[in-house]
């Protein structure tokens, strides 16, 4: 396990589509999902499909389980008292993190989609994270990425990470709305967890970051906890020793 207290440790971010905690055995098992989350050892991890689809959109993960099975805590993003996130997008941060701002973003498209923005202080550095789950059709995904880019135009400059399930099968197309301001990293094939064939889960970074390492978590409970595998990236702030 990495020493996360080391002063030169990079910022590790992760993304994981947990499919409402339904695994390959068709059992809903939030404990198994959280064991996989813990094994990623991220400072910040974005979850997709963290809430049930219908009705009040209750969380698929009891909040008490997050405290029991991880050393992370959920960012307060829900618009009600029963969801963990917004449009299924939730963010967990390591305990003790200083969250300074949050925002829910509606995204265009035929399917109901959204994104969440979290700003936090990481070792004295203000950092912005936008977590999302893009649509199934490329033209809608591009509209959604453009909406995120337009929102960022009105925000103060800050090291920014955009991550989630981008639902893009192509390695070369679909990222045009953010290509000018972000480097898009596909850590590896993360879908389907039984036979990984597509890098749907991605991590995009502003020029404030250098990518030190990235990968797909392909062991332990993650192999059966969802139809996606978790992805992660180790990032250093440019011009620092992190």
Please give a structural write-up.
The two termini are 18 Å apart. With 242 residues, the protein is an alpha+beta fold. The chain has one domain: Deoxyribonuclease I, Chain A (4-Layer Sandwich), CATH 3.60.10. The protein is globular and about 40 Å long. The chain contains four helices and twelve strands; from the N terminus they run βαβαβββββαββββαβ.
Q: Could you please say which CATH topology applies here? A: Deoxyribonuclease I, Chain A
Low-confidence stretches: 1-7
Assign the CATH class.
Answer: Alpha Beta
> How is the largest sheet built, in terms of strand order?
3-4-2-1-12-11
Annotated CATH homologous superfamily: Endonuclease/exonuclease/phosphatase
What proportion strand? 25-35%
SSE layout:
Layout: E1 11-17, H1 30-40, E2 44-48, H2 63-69, E3 72-74, E4 90-94, E5 98-107, E6 113-122, E7 125-133, H3 138-153, E8 160-165, E9 183-185, E10 201-205, E11 209-216, H4 222-225, E12 231-237
Parallel strand pairs: 1-2, 7-8
Antiparallel strand pairs: 1-12, 2-4, 3-4, 5-6, 6-7, 8-10, 9-10, 11-12
Features of the shown structure:
12 strands, 4 helices, six-stranded mixed sheet, alpha+beta, single chain, Deoxyribonuclease I, Chain A, 242 residues
Sum this structure up briefly:
The chain is an alpha+beta fold and 242 residues long. The chain has four helices and twelve strands, in the order βαβαβββββαββββαβ.
